[in-house]
Amino acid sequence: MPATAPPDTAVPGTAAPVPPATTGGTGGDPRRRATRRRRLIAGLFLLPALLLLGALVAYPILFTVGRSFFDAGGTRFVGGENYAEMFRDPATLTAIRNSTIWVVVAPVLLTGLGLVLAVLTEKIRWATAFKLLMFMPMAISFLAAGIIFRVVYEQDPERGVLNAVAVGVHDSFDQGASFPTARPRPGQGLTKQQDGSYRTAPNLGPGSTTALGLVGVPPKDLPKKAKPAKGAASAKASGSELRGVLYVDFTPGGGGKPGRVDPAERGLPGMTVEAVRDGTVAAKATTAADGSYRLTGLRPGSYALRLPAANFAEPYQGVAWLGPALVTPAIIGAYLWIWTGFAMVLIGAGLAALPREVLEAARMDGASEGQIFRRITVPLLAPVLTVVFVTMVINVMKVFDLVYIIAPGPVQQEANVLAMQMWLVSFGGGNNQGLGSALGVLLLLLVVPAMVFNIRRFRRSQK
Fold first, then answer.
1. Which among 440, 457, 454, 340 has a CA at the least distance from the CA of 394?
2. Could you tell me which residue, 49 or 314, shows the higher pLDDT?
3. Is residue 68 domain-resident?
4. Same domain for 296 and 332?
5. pLDDT confidence of 7, banded at 50, 70, 90?
């Protein structure tokens, strides 16, 4: 019978037995205990943040979703009625339309402007100062920026900067003048027509001289270049022209005689005078500084003098920036002023990280700056441009302050966006928090895809 090996002796060719791990009476692997301990410590450190996220993010979202299925008072379950009402409301449809315009226009313009400015600032010596100036609006709150641009877009050229510029440019090209308060003195031969113009009887022929007096023009509205009309009234016309003077038939300080040009009475410069025959304008002239006019090249016959309605129209007051047609583009312009510096700085940081040897190699191969920009710079900056674009999409979906402050009350509905419609329905007079909650859920659903896309972009860039 073969002998057997002792228990504590290993058999040749076999592995030695492994002694059982000593636990020391603690009941587990030390490595597992260390892992559990680290997780417990990490959880304790994360607990305050998780509580804040739960209280400030998760709970409001869940409450809003639940609240959207109840009526305005929150007492009766209405199911999806709020969501159906949301898309039946014309104000909500206007808000969706304007939000779509914001999402399509603002991020594209911001990304494009930021890219162009970032590339250009690389080629100037004072790039740091320029970036500082462009980034400075980010330090201003949306409330302050809205107040600033509410004044900038003011219709009155005396207050609105843009309209002051527009009126100045317009008046430099249009030398005509208008006196909206002017009117003829009764019994002076001028009759008002249906189109707003004034006309004499058709009994004037070539060689005639006519003085046309108007009243209702305040001295402050007279141009500085206006001169006394007395000398022009005494001028004689030739045989083929109609001549005369257009003046203010009022003597400052009193005195003078109605219907007669007195020495202290001034002419009305820049007004249009027409000679009309059989409904056709035969000649046209603009009054000089002393109010005189000459209608030349007239054939024999009877003519009427006409003062067109444009002479009595309101003067050019600029563009209605905050009117129904332009209020949304105007607010987008204010948004661009605030955020362009942010986009420029972010894209500039990506531009500074580009491999310079690639750009230099392209220049050595004969590529123009335009080709380098289109085929090298933009493709290499695509990740940064995407981040800027998506960030701006998320941001414009939540825009509220600028719209609420800049848009005047009568046109606020024309500039309405989803965030402001949600506030108006819930707290701004609608008092329907059920419908407001449904709008909040809609806004969340529209923002979530862009946020998910951005998070995935960040994760891919980290890998």
1. 454
2. 49
3. no
4. no
5. very low
In this structure, what CATH number is given to the domain that contains residue 417?
1.10.3720.10
Indicate if 263 and 375 belong to the same structural domain: no
pLDDT digits (tens, 9 = 90+) for 122-155: 878 888 888 888 889 988 888 999 999 999 999 8
Tell me how many degrees the CA angle 377-381-385 measures, rounded to the nearest 5. 130
Q: In terms of domains, do 344 and 288 share one?
A: no
Report the number of distinct structural domains present in the chain: 2
Model confidence band, residue 19 (pLDDT cutoffs 50, 70, 90): low
One-character DSSP codes across 167-208: HHHHHHH------TT-EEPTTSS-EE-TTS-EE--S-B-TT-
Q: How far is CA 335 from CA 145, 374, 396, 422, in A?
A: 9, 27, 9, 20
Structural domain including 251 reads 183-312
H-helix or E-strand spanning residue 248? strand 242-248
For residue 256, what pLDDT is reported? 76
pLDDT tens digits, residue range 73-96? 888 999 889 999 888 989 999 999
d(CA 316, CA 31): 83
pLDDT tens digits, one per residue of 34-52: 898 999 999 899 999 999 9
DSSP track, 314-383 = PPP----TTSTTTHHHHHHHHHHHHHHHHHHHHHHHHHHTS-HHHHHHHHHTT--HHHHIIIIIHHHTHH
In sequence order, which residues have a C-beta less than 8 Å from that of residue 270 and are 6 or more positions away?
Answer: 175, 176, 177, 223, 286, 287
Residue 82 included in any domain: no
Distance separating alpha carbons of residues 51 and 120, to the nearest angstrom: 47
Which residue, of 293, 312, 331, is where some domain finishes?
A: 312
Residues 362, 292: one domain?
no
Which tokens sit at 354?
A: 């580009």
β-strands 191-192, 198-199: how paired?
antiparallel
Q: Does residue 47 lie in a domain region?
A: no
The model's pTM is 0.74
In whole angstroms, give the CA distance from residue 76 to residue 65: 15
Q: Looking at this protein, which amino acid is placed at residue 404?
A: Y
Condensed to tens digits (0 to 9), the pLDDT of residues 237-248 reads: 788 888 989 999
Question: In three state form, how does the secondary structure of 366-423 look?
Answer: CCCHHHHHHHHHHHHCHHHHHHHHHHHHHHHHCCCHHHHHHCCHHHCCCCCCHHHHHH
Residue environment code for 358-391, b if the CB has 16+ CB neighbours within 10 A, otherwise e:
ebeebeeeebeeeebbeebbeebbeebbebbbbb
For the segment 395-454, what is each residue's pLDDT rounded down to a tens digit? 998 899 999 999 998 899 999 999 999 999 988 777 888 999 999 999 989 888 888 887
Q: Domain for residue 163, yes or no?
A: no
